[in-house]
Task: structure prediction
Amino acid sequence: MSRVCELTGKKAMVGNNVSHAMNKTKRKFHANLVKKRFYVPEEDNWITLKVSTSALKTINKIGITAAIKEAKSKGFLK
Result:
């Protein structure tokens, strides 16, 4: 499974490792993802999502139902 947040669509970014001698080599900055179960009271079931930690903060703020609705409207969640 890919390293993409299912609610926000965040994924790895590309950048450089830079040494003291200013040599540059490619590297990846991965999204901070966790696998988490959420209870959706409207559907009366549990769902498992791979979400970024910033998405967890959003879920705590607006609720899981609103976060899922927003992700579906943006096309990140089916």
